[in-house]
Write a structure and sequence with these properties.
Distance between the termini: 96 Å
Helix content: over 70%
Strand order of the largest sheet: 1-3-2
CATH architecture: Up-down Bundle
CATH superfamily: Rhodopsin 7-helix transmembrane proteins
Order of helices and strands: HHHHHHEEEH
Radius of gyration: 27 Å
CATH class: Mainly Alpha
Structural class: mainly alpha
Number of helices: 7
Strand content: under 5%
CATH topology: Rhopdopsin 7-helix transmembrane proteins
């Protein structure tokens, strides 16, 4: 009874947040699409932003279907198939969210990097390399989550020992130790690598913007110091004489 109540509480708290997230990301996609149709020149970061927004929408939708009750009451599609597809897609979307955020952060760091820096050598003139990178990331992320297609099942009515409950309706079958450690290590290395790149690019941008601010302040102070003697020339001359 307590477990059932916790599922209901999680579902009721999730739906409003998912609605806001889906609406915000849909508006973001519409704004970028409208800007292109109006005639604005697309920026190199537009594709990753739209891709990230679409990824978040799919992630929220799959999570919403997992915690929903209506989809599990229909008997047209087997429960195991629904669990496998939804859990797999949700994990893939989560991985793609991290990867896409990393790509966007790196592109922003490359875009604002000054001419002559080593990052400026990676500046792109078109989106073809980004499309190829996203294709690779999709294949790689789906490969790291492929074990979910084998070990995800619908939760049986009777308690089965060894099951790891994901939601009220879906569970994971027991895995062999070597298989579990292999895929967990693969996903952990993926997340650590891309999050490390995000930290690096974010830190680089902070340092770059800080240096730009200091240079602007120095130029302003130099300009003020050059103007100050001219402003005080008259009074000083009168005082001396």
């Amino acid at each position: 009874m307590d477990q059932r109540f916790s599922y209901i509480a999680i579902r009721n708290a999730f739906y409003p947040q998912a609605g806001i997230g889906i609406s915000a990301n849909a508006i973001l996609i519409c704004l970028h699409t409208a800007a292109v149709h109006v005639g604005h020149k697309p920026r190199i970061t537009d594709l990753p932003i739209v891709h990230l927004a679409l990824t978040h929408i799919l992630m929220l939708l799959t999570m919403g279907l997992l915690v929903s009750t209506d989809i599990w009451e229909t008997q047209d599609i087997p429960g195991d198939f629904k669990c496998k597809v939804l859990v797999f897609l949700n994990k893939v979307m989560r991985g793609m969210s991290i990867c896409t955020t990393c790509v966007l952060s790196m592109l922003q760091a490359i875009t604002i990097s000054p001419t002559g820096s080593w990052l400026s050598n990676f500046k792109l003139k078109n989106t073809n390399p980004i499309l190829k990178l996203f294709l690779f990331l999709w294949v790689f992320t789906m490969s790291t989550c492929s074990n979910l297609l084998l070990y995800t099942v619908s939760t049986p009515n009777k308690t089965q020992p060894g099951l790891l409950f994901v939601t009220e309706h879906c569970s994971f079958l027991p895995m062999k130790y070597i298989h579990r450690e292999f895929f967990l290590t693969l996903m952990a290395c993926r997340d650590v690598f891309f999050m490390g790149l995000m930290v690096f690019s974010s830190g680089y941008m902070v340092i770059l913007l800080y240096r730009h601010k200091k240079q602007s302040q120095n130029l302003h102070n130099s300009k003020f110091s050059l103007q100050n003697p001219l402003q005080n020339k008259g009074p000083l001359k009168a005082f001396c004489c």
